[in-house]
Amino acid sequence: MQRLITQEGINPERTSYVGTDGIWSEKWVISQGVGMTSYTMVSDNQSVGVKASGEQSINKPHAETFSLYGSISNSTSQKIHGAVEIVNVPDVADGHSEFTPVMAGPAKLSSISGSTVAPAEQDHDIIGSAELLYRLSPMNLRSAQSAFDPADGTWLTADQITDWSLVKAVAVSLISQEIPPYTTLRLAIPVKDQQIYHHVGKTIYVSSAIFSKGVEDDSGLPTLMIEPASEHSAKLKVVGEYDEQKLDVTFIDDTTGETLKTVTKTGQRGTTTDYTTIADVDDYVAKHYILVSDDTDGKMITFDYDDNVDQHYTVHLKHDTEAVTDSVKKNLVVHYVYADGQAKTGTAADDAQEAITFTRTGTHDLVTDTVEWDAWDQASQTFPAIASPIISGYTTDKTEVSNVSVTADSPETTEETVKYRANEQELTVDFIDDTTLVKRLRRSLRLGQAIPSLITTQLMISRVT
């Protein structure tokens, strides 16, 4: 037994011993005895090895992971039949543990020499085989010996576990097997606490029970139970100091290059924020933005362990747009009038009209409700030529209106005027003296022009003569 104590690093003051006459807890050294001993241990990230009392530092690597240990030691010179150990995962529900870690994977069983006896995934022999079983609820350790039944449906094998964080108890079952004399089996349970940075100063306790099943009544051993926070319960305390971590999420408008907003969060390293970008992105989408990329993928963000560098995340958005078209119509109106000072005045003919259209495309920004236009389809256009109407006896100053060009920015209507002038005609008046004289008076007059008074006077004189 002394070899076991030395090899396992057992502190006899913290070790319980099961004999046929009861459970003993005191300083002891046994060279040979009749019974099993058990102890619980922990490992931390501050030193190598297992111990009855550990301190997990949040300032050292692997702060979130550690291991719990249970053991069965046959301290006798006889084989022990049907041994069982059950270890409950610490839980605030046990009334003593101050936080609740969860299992991080399958347990492992090893011998005193440290060689692997039974990986959690399958059964292996010690003398025959040790079976590792898992339960999704804690075991009542006080009634464990009578209540334990591997076939009752509450105990599962490793291949039946889909989520290790749900496991609350682990059992090593050697019901049909024997533990050789002076042999210790160690059960290692990997656990993790993702919220450990919230648990500085808090402690958990490891509880277990060992008993034997299937032995004769007169040789059976009573249950040895290590209750949480009892003298023999291993404990692990979270220690350390932390600096507040900081992260920010910046929303960038890729269309303008501007920063829309920045969300800043602070918290403890290793913890997860309660913020996601989902609500903010939805709000921007409602304002006609399009999500380009999101470094966070819309998930809650976990603070890292670097006290010197803040975490930065970026969400890129762009403006939603739609294609639009525009057109503008330009008109040419030609007026036809009589020239000033003519016998006829006013409109010589009805107005003539021509029209042309400019078109362009553009991009409507749905965020700003503005349009960015492309160039017009043509820089300028020329109206078709319009021939001036022919009016008998009149001559126009323009036989046609042509080569009138406009741009999209020109006035809506361009006006041109064509003037009509009466053609010149010759008036001949003959004064005839029936006896001796013929006198001819010639004048050139325009159509519609009044006969000059000189001619009418001469006509009157002729008549008097």
Automatic annotation (TrEMBL):
Residues 331-423 form the Mub B2-like domain. InterPro entries: Mub_B2 (IPR041495), MucBP_2 (IPR041558). Residues 245-319 form the Mucin binding domain. This is MucBP domain-containing protein. It comes from Limosilactobacillus reuteri. The lineage of its organism: Bacteria, Bacillati, Bacillota, Bacilli, Lactobacillales.
